[in-house]
């Protein structure tokens, strides 16, 4: 079920990107919505789990490692994760580099899923909501290029989509072989990745630094969705223990 949701989130996003990819405003709005959701999941789910672990104060270093790792990965992906696809031409971003960057990013996010107690956890939904806009942008980039045939997409494009879709499930599979005591460290790294991506999307400067009410509304909506899920998850968790 978990792996299926992860794969479907990528395929759905790519499909939407292929057919609606020229609507950059839609992609940006999806990203802002997902950023509000993601930062809330990060602060209400990921970090409490990380700091509840009795492993000393070194976990903060792993959060910083996650932030730095995401900065390095963005050198490969050119900022796909926060909507910078419209700045690229076909010549200044290599599909191979994009594939490597996105694969590592999604693979690492999948590792903590192996130790999640609940199958449909807020952490999983955080990844799903995060995958949709990235996949939308990926589909728009890969399948709307001048040399890309509308009727028969090229094998490299399909390979990139397939690897991205399978990366998190593969990370989850590998996570089953790790010592469960390492879970807080992987969560801390992913927390750093989530924090960096969501904060960049939310705090990017608006034109002329005017108040963007739509952006604020979308962030609030994303936060609200994550809070509802968090409260529902907490409630069901308590019922489970009773």
Structure keywords:
8 helices, 73% helix, ZIP, mainly alpha, single chain, membrane, 242 residues, zinc ion transmembrane transporter activity, ZIP family metal transporter
Question: Brief overview, please?
Answer:
The chain is an all-alpha fold.
Walk me through what this model shows:
The chain has one domain. The chain is built from eight helices and no strands. α3 runs antiparallel to α4. The longest helix has 29 residues, at 24-52. The protein has helices spanning 2-20, 24-52, 59-77, 95-110, 122-143, 155-175, 183-203, 213-241. Helix content is 73%, strand content 0%. It has 242 residues and is mainly α. The model is unreliable at 86-91 and 238-242 (pLDDT under 50). It is a multi-pass membrane protein. The chain crosses the membrane at residues 26-43, 50-73, 93-111, 123-143, 155-178, 185-203, 215-232. It is found in: Membrane.
Question: What is the secondary structure topology, with strand pairs?
Answer:
Blueprint: H1 2-20, H2 24-52, H3 59-77, H4 95-110, H5 122-143, H6 155-175, H7 183-203, H8 213-241
GO molecular function: zinc ion transmembrane transporter activity
Keywords: Membrane, Transmembrane, Transmembrane helix
Pfam family, one: Zip
């Amino acid at each position: 079920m978990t792996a299926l949701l992860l794969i479907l989130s990528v395929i759905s996003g790519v499909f939407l990107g292929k057919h609606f990819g020229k609507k950059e405003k839609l992609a940006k709005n999806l990203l802002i919505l997902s950023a509000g959701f993601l930062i809330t999941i990060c602060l209400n789910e990921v970090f409490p789990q990380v700091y509840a672990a009795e492993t000393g104060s070194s976990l903060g270093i792993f959060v910083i490692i996650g932030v730095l790792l995401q900065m390095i990965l963005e050198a490969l992906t050119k900022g796909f994760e926060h909507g910078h696809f419209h700045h690229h031409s076909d010549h200044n971003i290599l599909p191979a580099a994009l594939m490597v960057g996105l694969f590592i990013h999604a693979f690492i996010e999948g590792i903590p899923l192996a130790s999640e107690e609940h199958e449909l956890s807020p952490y999983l939904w955080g990844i799903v909501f995060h995958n949709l806009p990235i996949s939308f942008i990926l589909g728009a980039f890969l399948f709307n290029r001048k040399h890309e045939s509308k009727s028969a997409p090229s094998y490299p494009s399909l390979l990139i989509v397939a690897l991205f879709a399978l990366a998190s499930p593969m990370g989850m599979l590998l996570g089953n072989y790790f010592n469960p005591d390492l879970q807080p460290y992987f969560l801390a790294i992913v927390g750093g990745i989530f924090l960096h991506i969501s904060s960049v999307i939310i705090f990017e400067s608006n034109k002329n630094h005017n108040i963007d009410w739509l952006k604020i509304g979308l962030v609030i909506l994303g936060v609200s969705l994550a809070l509802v899920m968090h409260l529902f998850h907490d409630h069901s968790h308590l019922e489970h223990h009773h």
